[in-house]
Amino acid sequence: MKTNHINSSWGNSIKTYPKIYRPENIKEIIKIIKKKKNFTIQGNGRSYGDVSLNFENLIKTEKLTKILNFDKKNGIIEVESGLLLVDLLKIILPLGWFIPVTPGTKYVSIGGMVANNVHGKNVKKNQLKYYISQIKLLNLQGKIITSSNKKNKKIFDLTVGGFGLTGIIISVKIRLKKVFSNLIEQKIVEFKNYKEFYKAYSKNSQYEYAVSWIDSFDKDYISGLHFFGKHSKTKEYLETKFKDSKIPFYTLAFLKIVLANYFLNKLVNLIFRKYKSIFFKKICTINDFFYPQDKFIDWNKVYGNRGFFQLQVLISSKKFEKFLAEVSFFLKKKSFFSSFVIIKKINEKGKYLNFFGNGFSLSFDFLINKNTNNLVIFFNKMIKKYNLNVNLSKDLITNKSNVNYLKRYKMFKKNILYLDRKKKLKSIFSKRLDL
Length: 435
Prior knowledge:
Blueprint: E1 2-4, E2 7-8, E3 15-16, E4 19-21, H1 26-35, E5 40-42, E6 57-60, E7 67-71, E8 76-80, H2 85-92, E9 97-98, H3 110-115, E10 132-138, E11 144-147, H4 153-159, E12 168-175, E13 177-178, E14 183-191, H5 194-203, E15 209-217, E16 222-231, H6 249-260, H7 262-278, E17 283-285, H8 286-290, E18 308-315, H9 320-334, E19 340-348, E20 357-367, H10 372-385, E21 389-390, H11 407-415, H12 428-432
Parallel strand pairs: 4-6, 5-6
Antiparallel strand pairs: 1-4, 2-3, 7-8, 8-12, 9-13, 10-11, 10-12, 14-16, 14-17, 15-16, 15-19, 18-20, 18-21, 19-20
Protein backbone atom coordinates (compact mmCIF):
# COMPACT_ATOMS: atom_id res chain seq x y z
CA MET A 1 0.00 0.00 0.00
CA LYS A 2 1.37 3.40 -1.04
CA THR A 3 0.39 6.82 0.33
CA ASN A 4 1.70 10.37 0.25
CA HIS A 5 1.49 11.97 3.68
CA ILE A 6 3.59 14.33 5.71
CA ASN A 7 6.39 12.54 7.53
CA SER A 8 8.55 14.05 10.24
CA SER A 9 11.09 13.25 12.90
CA TRP A 10 9.92 13.26 16.52
CA GLY A 11 11.57 16.66 16.84
CA ASN A 12 9.17 18.01 14.17
CA SER A 13 12.07 20.00 12.71
CA ILE A 14 12.04 18.40 9.26
CA LYS A 15 8.83 17.86 7.29
CA THR A 16 8.87 15.57 4.26
CA TYR A 17 6.26 14.26 1.80
CA PRO A 18 7.66 10.96 0.53
CA LYS A 19 5.85 8.05 -1.05
CA ILE A 20 5.12 5.85 1.94
CA TYR A 21 4.91 2.07 1.60
CA ARG A 22 3.51 -0.21 4.30
CA PRO A 23 4.36 -3.79 3.26
CA GLU A 24 2.71 -6.67 5.06
CA ASN A 25 5.32 -9.31 4.25
CA ILE A 26 8.76 -9.94 2.77
CA LYS A 27 7.45 -10.47 -0.76
CA GLU A 28 5.93 -6.99 -0.79
CA ILE A 29 9.20 -5.48 0.48
CA ILE A 30 11.18 -7.19 -2.30
CA LYS A 31 8.83 -5.78 -4.94
CA ILE A 32 9.37 -2.26 -3.60
CA ILE A 33 13.16 -2.42 -3.36
CA LYS A 34 13.46 -3.84 -6.87
CA LYS A 35 11.49 -0.93 -8.37
CA LYS A 36 12.84 2.03 -6.40
CA LYS A 37 16.18 3.75 -6.93
CA ASN A 38 16.48 4.71 -3.27
CA PHE A 39 14.50 4.45 -0.07
CA THR A 40 14.68 4.67 3.72
CA ILE A 41 13.37 2.26 6.36
CA GLN A 42 11.28 3.62 9.24
CA GLY A 43 9.71 1.98 12.27
CA ASN A 44 7.50 4.28 14.32
CA GLY A 45 9.36 7.52 13.51
CA ARG A 46 10.41 8.32 17.09
CA SER A 47 14.01 9.29 16.34
CA TYR A 48 14.67 12.94 17.19
CA GLY A 49 16.86 13.51 14.14
CA ASP A 50 16.83 12.58 10.46
CA VAL A 51 18.07 8.96 10.50
CA SER A 52 14.77 7.58 9.18
CA LEU A 53 13.68 10.41 6.89
CA ASN A 54 13.69 10.50 3.09
CA PHE A 55 12.20 12.99 0.63
CA GLU A 56 11.40 10.30 -1.96
CA ASN A 57 10.50 6.78 -0.78
CA LEU A 58 9.86 5.48 2.72
CA ILE A 59 9.21 1.87 3.75
CA LYS A 60 7.44 1.66 7.11
CA THR A 61 7.60 -1.63 8.99
CA GLU A 62 4.48 -0.97 11.07
CA LYS A 63 2.63 -4.04 9.71
CA LEU A 64 5.46 -6.47 10.52
CA THR A 65 4.40 -7.09 14.12
CA LYS A 66 4.30 -10.84 14.66
CA ILE A 67 5.85 -12.68 17.58
CA LEU A 68 7.60 -15.53 15.81
CA ASN A 69 8.81 -17.52 18.79
CA PHE A 70 8.83 -17.14 22.58
CA ASP A 71 10.72 -19.43 24.92
CA LYS A 72 8.93 -18.37 28.09
CA LYS A 73 11.11 -20.56 30.32
CA ASN A 74 14.45 -19.09 29.21
CA GLY A 75 13.25 -15.65 28.18
CA ILE A 76 14.29 -15.72 24.52
CA ILE A 77 11.89 -14.09 22.11
CA GLU A 78 11.94 -13.55 18.35
CA VAL A 79 9.75 -10.79 16.93
CA GLU A 80 9.25 -9.00 13.63
CA SER A 81 10.96 -5.64 13.40
CA GLY A 82 7.83 -3.48 13.29
CA LEU A 83 6.51 -4.62 16.68
CA LEU A 84 6.39 -1.72 19.14
CA LEU A 85 8.12 -2.02 22.50
CA VAL A 86 4.88 -1.10 24.28
CA ASP A 87 3.15 -4.12 22.73
CA LEU A 88 6.07 -6.37 23.62
CA LEU A 89 5.96 -5.19 27.25
CA LYS A 90 2.26 -6.03 27.50
CA ILE A 91 3.16 -9.63 26.73
CA ILE A 92 6.42 -10.19 28.59
CA LEU A 93 5.97 -8.17 31.82
CA PRO A 94 3.07 -10.22 33.26
CA LEU A 95 5.22 -13.32 32.67
CA GLY A 96 8.16 -11.90 34.64
CA TRP A 97 10.37 -10.70 31.80
CA PHE A 98 11.68 -7.28 30.81
CA ILE A 99 13.76 -5.81 28.01
CA PRO A 100 17.39 -5.60 29.30
CA VAL A 101 18.06 -2.14 27.82
CA THR A 102 15.27 0.29 27.05
CA PRO A 103 15.19 3.84 25.66
CA GLY A 104 13.16 6.59 27.30
CA THR A 105 10.03 5.83 25.30
CA LYS A 106 8.16 2.58 24.76
CA TYR A 107 6.63 3.76 21.47
CA VAL A 108 9.60 2.64 19.37
CA SER A 109 9.80 -0.35 17.06
CA ILE A 110 12.09 -3.25 17.91
CA GLY A 111 13.81 -2.86 14.53
CA GLY A 112 14.36 0.81 15.26
CA MET A 113 15.91 -0.06 18.62
CA VAL A 114 18.36 -2.39 16.89
CA ALA A 115 19.16 0.05 14.05
CA ASN A 116 19.96 2.71 16.67
CA ASN A 117 21.58 0.28 19.15
CA VAL A 118 19.66 2.06 21.88
CA HIS A 119 21.05 2.63 25.35
CA GLY A 120 19.11 3.37 28.50
CA LYS A 121 19.68 4.03 32.19
CA ASN A 122 21.74 0.89 32.84
CA VAL A 123 24.86 1.42 34.93
CA LYS A 124 26.59 -1.50 33.15
CA LYS A 125 26.25 -3.08 29.69
CA ASN A 126 24.15 -0.20 28.51
CA GLN A 127 23.71 -1.12 24.83
CA LEU A 128 21.03 -3.30 23.29
CA LYS A 129 23.62 -5.18 21.22
CA TYR A 130 24.68 -7.25 24.25
CA TYR A 131 21.26 -8.91 24.35
CA ILE A 132 20.58 -9.57 20.67
CA SER A 133 20.96 -13.26 19.81
CA GLN A 134 20.11 -13.02 16.14
CA ILE A 135 19.06 -10.66 13.36
CA LYS A 136 17.41 -11.61 10.08
CA LEU A 137 18.27 -9.00 7.47
CA LEU A 138 16.84 -8.68 3.97
CA ASN A 139 19.58 -7.47 1.66
CA LEU A 140 19.19 -5.44 -1.54
CA GLN A 141 19.21 -8.60 -3.66
CA GLY A 142 16.15 -9.94 -1.84
CA LYS A 143 18.08 -12.52 0.17
CA ILE A 144 17.61 -13.03 3.91
CA ILE A 145 20.88 -13.10 5.87
CA THR A 146 20.96 -14.45 9.42
CA SER A 147 23.61 -12.80 11.57
CA SER A 148 24.75 -12.89 15.18
CA ASN A 149 27.91 -12.48 17.26
CA LYS A 150 29.02 -15.86 15.91
CA LYS A 151 27.52 -16.02 12.41
CA ASN A 152 28.07 -13.28 9.82
CA LYS A 153 29.47 -11.18 12.66
CA LYS A 154 30.61 -8.36 10.37
CA ILE A 155 27.07 -7.84 9.09
CA PHE A 156 25.77 -8.09 12.65
CA ASP A 157 28.16 -5.36 13.87
CA LEU A 158 27.32 -3.09 10.93
CA THR A 159 23.56 -3.55 11.36
CA VAL A 160 23.33 -2.96 15.13
CA GLY A 161 23.65 0.81 15.23
CA GLY A 162 23.80 1.01 11.43
CA PHE A 163 20.68 3.18 11.11
CA GLY A 164 19.05 1.02 8.45
CA LEU A 165 21.90 1.42 5.96
CA THR A 166 22.79 -2.29 5.71
CA GLY A 167 19.39 -3.70 4.67
CA ILE A 168 15.89 -4.23 6.01
CA ILE A 169 15.72 -5.79 9.48
CA ILE A 170 13.01 -8.45 9.24
CA SER A 171 13.16 -10.02 12.68
CA VAL A 172 15.17 -9.88 15.91
CA LYS A 173 15.82 -12.48 18.61
CA ILE A 174 16.43 -10.98 22.07
CA ARG A 175 17.48 -12.44 25.42
CA LEU A 176 15.13 -10.94 28.01
CA LYS A 177 15.84 -10.05 31.65
CA LYS A 178 14.09 -11.98 34.43
CA VAL A 179 12.24 -9.74 36.92
CA PHE A 180 10.11 -10.52 39.97
CA SER A 181 7.45 -7.96 39.16
CA ASN A 182 6.91 -4.69 37.32
CA LEU A 183 8.03 -2.66 40.33
CA ILE A 184 11.15 -0.52 40.72
CA GLU A 185 12.79 0.55 43.97
CA GLN A 186 13.55 4.19 43.32
CA LYS A 187 15.73 6.76 45.04
CA ILE A 188 15.94 10.43 44.06
CA VAL A 189 18.90 12.44 45.35
CA GLU A 190 19.24 16.20 45.06
CA PHE A 191 22.67 17.74 44.42
CA LYS A 192 23.66 21.41 44.52
CA ASN A 193 27.35 21.29 43.55
CA TYR A 194 29.91 19.11 41.76
CA LYS A 195 31.05 17.42 44.97
CA GLU A 196 27.53 16.22 45.75
CA PHE A 197 27.03 15.25 42.11
CA TYR A 198 30.02 12.87 42.11
CA LYS A 199 29.50 11.60 45.66
CA ALA A 200 25.99 10.33 44.93
CA TYR A 201 27.31 7.87 42.33
CA SER A 202 29.69 6.17 44.77
CA LYS A 203 27.12 6.11 47.59
CA ASN A 204 24.44 4.49 45.42
CA SER A 205 26.46 1.94 43.46
CA GLN A 206 24.03 -0.84 44.44
CA TYR A 207 21.45 0.45 41.96
CA GLU A 208 21.16 -1.03 38.46
CA TYR A 209 19.98 2.16 36.82
CA ALA A 210 20.99 5.81 37.09
CA VAL A 211 20.23 9.03 35.23
CA SER A 212 20.63 12.67 36.22
CA TRP A 213 18.44 15.66 35.40
CA ILE A 214 20.17 19.04 35.48
CA ASP A 215 18.29 22.26 36.13
CA SER A 216 21.31 24.59 36.28
CA PHE A 217 25.06 24.50 35.68
CA ASP A 218 28.07 26.79 35.44
CA LYS A 219 31.85 26.49 35.82
CA ASP A 220 31.56 26.52 39.62
CA TYR A 221 28.30 24.72 40.34
CA ILE A 222 25.78 22.18 39.11
CA SER A 223 22.33 21.40 40.51
CA GLY A 224 19.66 18.86 39.79
CA LEU A 225 18.44 15.38 40.67
CA HIS A 226 19.90 11.87 40.45
CA PHE A 227 17.36 9.14 39.70
CA PHE A 228 18.53 5.70 40.90
CA GLY A 229 16.57 2.50 40.48
CA LYS A 230 16.66 -1.29 40.75
CA HIS A 231 14.13 -4.03 40.17
CA SER A 232 12.12 -4.84 43.27
CA LYS A 233 12.40 -8.39 44.57
CA THR A 234 8.83 -8.40 45.77
CA LYS A 235 6.51 -10.59 43.72
CA GLU A 236 3.69 -8.08 43.95
CA TYR A 237 2.51 -6.93 40.51
CA LEU A 238 0.79 -3.59 40.01
CA GLU A 239 -1.33 -3.54 36.88
CA THR A 240 0.16 -1.36 34.16
CA LYS A 241 -2.38 -0.43 31.51
CA PHE A 242 -0.03 1.66 29.38
CA LYS A 243 -2.93 3.98 28.55
CA ASP A 244 -0.98 7.15 27.95
CA SER A 245 -2.97 10.15 26.81
CA LYS A 246 -2.58 13.19 24.58
CA ILE A 247 -1.43 16.38 26.23
CA PRO A 248 -4.37 18.57 27.43
CA PHE A 249 -4.74 21.97 25.78
CA TYR A 250 -4.16 23.97 28.98
CA THR A 251 -1.02 21.95 29.85
CA LEU A 252 0.26 22.40 26.31
CA ALA A 253 -0.27 26.16 26.43
CA PHE A 254 1.47 26.47 29.81
CA LEU A 255 4.48 24.37 28.79
CA LYS A 256 4.93 26.34 25.58
CA ILE A 257 5.21 29.51 27.66
CA VAL A 258 7.68 27.85 30.05
CA LEU A 259 9.90 26.60 27.22
CA ALA A 260 10.07 30.04 25.63
CA ASN A 261 10.85 32.00 28.81
CA TYR A 262 14.25 31.65 30.52
CA PHE A 263 13.21 32.93 33.97
CA LEU A 264 9.93 31.02 34.08
CA ASN A 265 11.77 27.88 32.96
CA LYS A 266 14.25 28.29 35.80
CA LEU A 267 11.49 28.84 38.35
CA VAL A 268 9.51 25.77 37.27
CA ASN A 269 12.69 23.65 37.29
CA LEU A 270 13.55 24.82 40.82
CA ILE A 271 10.08 23.97 42.11
CA PHE A 272 10.22 20.57 40.39
CA ARG A 273 13.67 19.82 41.86
CA LYS A 274 12.65 20.65 45.42
CA TYR A 275 9.34 18.80 45.18
CA LYS A 276 10.82 15.64 43.64
CA SER A 277 13.72 15.47 46.11
CA ILE A 278 11.23 15.23 49.00
CA PHE A 279 8.01 13.72 47.65
CA PHE A 280 9.16 10.88 45.42
CA LYS A 281 7.74 7.37 45.23
CA LYS A 282 10.14 4.86 46.75
CA ILE A 283 8.32 2.10 44.91
CA CYS A 284 7.09 2.84 41.39
CA THR A 285 6.23 0.87 38.28
CA ILE A 286 8.56 0.19 35.38
CA ASN A 287 6.35 2.47 33.31
CA ASP A 288 6.81 5.38 35.73
CA PHE A 289 10.57 4.93 36.09
CA PHE A 290 11.64 4.29 32.50
CA TYR A 291 9.00 6.14 30.51
CA PRO A 292 7.90 9.27 32.41
CA GLN A 293 7.71 11.36 29.22
CA ASP A 294 5.28 8.86 27.70
CA LYS A 295 2.59 10.15 30.04
CA PHE A 296 1.73 12.41 27.12
CA ILE A 297 2.22 10.53 23.86
CA ASP A 298 2.44 13.78 21.90
CA TRP A 299 4.68 15.79 24.26
CA ASN A 300 6.78 16.98 21.31
CA LYS A 301 3.97 19.42 20.52
CA VAL A 302 5.12 21.68 23.36
CA TYR A 303 7.96 22.84 21.08
CA GLY A 304 5.52 24.24 18.53
CA ASN A 305 5.46 24.01 14.74
CA ARG A 306 9.18 24.64 14.29
CA GLY A 307 10.07 21.81 16.64
CA PHE A 308 13.29 21.17 18.54
CA PHE A 309 16.60 19.42 18.20
CA GLN A 310 18.47 17.33 20.72
CA LEU A 311 22.22 16.95 20.96
CA GLN A 312 23.73 14.12 22.98
CA VAL A 313 27.50 13.91 23.30
CA LEU A 314 29.92 11.89 25.40
CA ILE A 315 32.88 13.58 27.09
CA SER A 316 35.62 12.21 29.34
CA SER A 317 35.30 12.72 33.10
CA LYS A 318 38.47 14.85 33.13
CA LYS A 319 37.03 17.38 30.70
CA PHE A 320 33.44 17.24 31.98
CA GLU A 321 33.47 20.39 34.13
CA LYS A 322 35.53 22.37 31.63
CA PHE A 323 33.13 21.48 28.84
CA LEU A 324 30.07 22.48 30.89
CA ALA A 325 31.74 25.76 31.86
CA GLU A 326 32.37 26.61 28.21
CA VAL A 327 28.82 25.69 27.20
CA SER A 328 27.39 27.72 30.07
CA PHE A 329 29.49 30.77 29.15
CA PHE A 330 28.31 30.63 25.54
CA LEU A 331 24.62 30.14 26.42
CA LYS A 332 24.63 33.02 28.90
CA LYS A 333 26.51 35.32 26.53
CA LYS A 334 23.96 34.68 23.77
CA SER A 335 20.94 34.51 26.15
CA PHE A 336 20.21 30.93 25.07
CA PHE A 337 19.10 28.07 27.29
CA SER A 338 18.37 24.36 27.04
CA SER A 339 14.94 23.40 28.30
CA PHE A 340 16.01 19.88 29.23
CA VAL A 341 19.48 18.61 30.22
CA ILE A 342 20.18 14.96 31.05
CA ILE A 343 23.44 13.36 32.18
CA LYS A 344 24.38 9.67 32.27
CA LYS A 345 27.59 8.01 33.34
CA ILE A 346 28.75 5.70 30.56
CA ASN A 347 31.60 3.21 30.13
CA GLU A 348 30.99 1.27 26.92
CA LYS A 349 33.04 -0.12 24.05
CA GLY A 350 31.91 -0.02 20.44
CA LYS A 351 32.72 0.57 16.81
CA TYR A 352 31.45 2.18 13.62
CA LEU A 353 28.57 4.64 14.21
CA ASN A 354 27.71 3.48 17.73
CA PHE A 355 27.52 5.81 20.74
CA PHE A 356 30.18 4.66 23.18
CA GLY A 357 33.12 5.75 25.32
CA ASN A 358 34.05 6.38 28.94
CA GLY A 359 32.78 9.46 30.74
CA PHE A 360 29.55 11.40 30.94
CA SER A 361 26.92 11.73 28.24
CA LEU A 362 25.09 15.05 28.11
CA SER A 363 21.79 15.62 26.30
CA PHE A 364 20.56 19.11 25.49
CA ASP A 365 17.13 20.00 24.06
CA PHE A 366 16.83 23.28 22.18
CA LEU A 367 13.75 24.96 20.81
CA ILE A 368 14.29 25.77 17.13
CA ASN A 369 14.15 29.53 16.56
CA LYS A 370 16.17 32.39 15.10
CA ASN A 371 19.16 31.47 17.33
CA THR A 372 19.46 27.88 16.13
CA ASN A 373 22.14 28.51 13.52
CA ASN A 374 24.44 30.06 16.15
CA LEU A 375 23.94 27.01 18.37
CA VAL A 376 24.72 24.64 15.49
CA ILE A 377 27.97 26.46 14.67
CA PHE A 378 29.03 26.56 18.33
CA PHE A 379 28.36 22.88 19.06
CA ASN A 380 30.03 21.70 15.86
CA LYS A 381 33.14 23.56 16.97
CA MET A 382 32.89 21.95 20.41
CA ILE A 383 32.48 18.47 18.90
CA LYS A 384 35.74 18.92 17.03
CA LYS A 385 37.59 20.69 19.85
CA TYR A 386 36.79 18.03 22.47
CA ASN A 387 36.69 15.09 20.04
CA LEU A 388 33.19 14.23 21.27
CA ASN A 389 31.31 11.08 20.37
CA VAL A 390 27.85 12.12 19.17
CA ASN A 391 24.73 9.97 19.56
CA LEU A 392 23.73 9.95 15.90
CA SER A 393 20.30 8.46 16.60
CA LYS A 394 19.30 11.85 18.06
CA ASP A 395 21.58 14.07 16.01
CA LEU A 396 20.45 16.71 13.54
CA ILE A 397 23.32 19.18 13.46
CA THR A 398 26.65 17.34 13.09
CA ASN A 399 28.42 18.14 9.85
CA LYS A 400 30.47 15.67 7.83
CA SER A 401 33.77 17.45 8.56
CA ASN A 402 33.33 16.36 12.19
CA VAL A 403 32.92 12.66 11.43
CA ASN A 404 34.59 11.83 8.12
CA TYR A 405 38.09 12.24 9.53
CA LEU A 406 37.39 9.52 12.10
CA LYS A 407 38.61 6.05 11.16
CA ARG A 408 35.51 4.24 12.41
CA TYR A 409 33.22 6.29 10.16
CA LYS A 410 35.43 5.60 7.16
CA MET A 411 35.36 1.88 7.98
CA PHE A 412 31.57 1.86 8.20
CA LYS A 413 31.23 3.67 4.88
CA LYS A 414 33.67 1.29 3.21
CA ASN A 415 32.11 -1.89 4.62
CA ILE A 416 28.47 -1.13 3.76
CA LEU A 417 29.39 -0.75 0.08
CA TYR A 418 29.45 -4.51 -0.44
CA LEU A 419 25.96 -4.72 1.08
CA ASP A 420 24.56 -1.81 -0.92
CA ARG A 421 26.73 -1.26 -4.01
CA LYS A 422 24.14 0.88 -5.78
CA LYS A 423 23.56 2.99 -2.66
CA LYS A 424 19.80 2.46 -2.70
CA LEU A 425 19.49 2.81 1.07
CA LYS A 426 19.58 6.55 1.59
CA SER A 427 18.26 8.92 4.20
CA ILE A 428 18.59 12.62 4.88
CA PHE A 429 20.98 11.58 7.63
CA SER A 430 23.24 9.48 5.37
CA LYS A 431 23.39 12.26 2.79
CA ARG A 432 24.18 14.87 5.45
CA LEU A 433 27.14 12.86 6.73
CA ASP A 434 28.10 11.46 3.32
CA LEU A 435 27.78 7.84 4.45
